[in-house]
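User: Here's a structure from my thesis project, written as structure tokens. My advisor, Dr. K., wants to see whether a designed sequence matches the one we expressed. Can you design one independently, without my sequence as a hint?
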């Protein structure tokens, strides 16, 4: 599972760097898998990183969506 989470996190960063919002979704899914791994392996310190990371990715996805809506209305 940790390999899948790592691949999703790296893919998410790649997509965000390419200005593609799907990267935030990849990161959120990856962080969710990290939560499972942390709880399953009892590595609770990992939760200190991944739980806030989910919130940051949600925030950024929402901001990008709102910004995209503003840009689309300017074009029309």
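Assistant: Designed independently from the structure alone:
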């Amino acid at each position: 599972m940790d390999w899948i989470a790592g691949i999703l996190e790296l893919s998410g960063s790649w997509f965000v760097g390419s200005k593609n919002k799907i990267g935030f979704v990849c990161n959120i899914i990856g962080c969710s898998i990290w939560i499972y791994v942390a709880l399953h392996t009892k590595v609770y310190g990992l939760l200190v990183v991944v739980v806030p990371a989910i919130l940051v990715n949600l925030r950024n996805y929402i901001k990008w969506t709102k910004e995209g809506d503003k840009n689309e209305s300017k074009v029309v």
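When you compare it with your expressed construct, this may help: The chain has a mean pLDDT of 89.
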